[in-house]
């Protein structure tokens, strides 16, 4: 065999090995950066999460998990269009990536694109392998609620509760829905049920205050708003203080 040809083959083999090793090294490093980004996301620091996740993407651009995390980070920062881009990319890379699909539905809800959210989330309610379909059901319910299709919204909120009886998000949704329909007793019963499960939620106490206010129970409403102020974030505190001023 020609010596030059042998040398050429050896160079190709060595180059392939080196390239493969480099790709493997990049993936390992990218995974470490992604894990760090996820830790920052869990602690609520989306800015630091983005810094690490963008480094991870540069090393391994076809990792669906990194794109999903980027979507969540951008969503936390209010950069919804970027969130949609990365979540769609995650699903493109991994079509059966159910959590990314649910997150994409949430991003469409943030865009107030109710129909797109419903279209995106509906397959999750039919996927027997998806372990948390109650999230999708609650998000679909909210989208229908915003479309003022209250009967359909109620059905999906109840579907969510059937799947996860202690999930307070659909309880909150149903309480607001019943309040809008004028059924204040059912609204109060539902929000009290949610508070029993999550007694440290300022948002739930705020919603209880709204229902009591509609019932004409202003003193009781004020107590609930004050509880919301003691437990809530800045947004809830501002809303509850405004509600008290208007009583």
Number of helices: 13
How many beta-strand elements? 0
What is the helix content?
over 70%
Shape: elongated
Which secondary-structure class do the elements indicate?
A: mainly alpha
Alpha carbon gyration radius: 24 Å
Percent of sequence in beta strands: under 5%
- Strand and helix order: HHHHHHHHHHHHH
CATH topology group of the domain at 16-95: Serine Threonine Protein Phosphatase 5, Tetratricopeptide repeat
> Which regions have little confidence, pLDDT < 50, spanning 5+ residues?
none
Q: On the 0-100 scale, what is the average pLDDT?
A: 92
Question: How is the biggest beta sheet arranged?
Answer: none
Based on the coordinates given, report the CATH architecture of the domain at 16-95: Alpha Horseshoe
**Mind telling me the CATH class of the domain at 16-95?**
Mainly Alpha
The N- and C-terminal alpha carbons lie at a distance of 95 Å
CATH superfamily of the domain at 16-95: Tetratricopeptide repeat domain
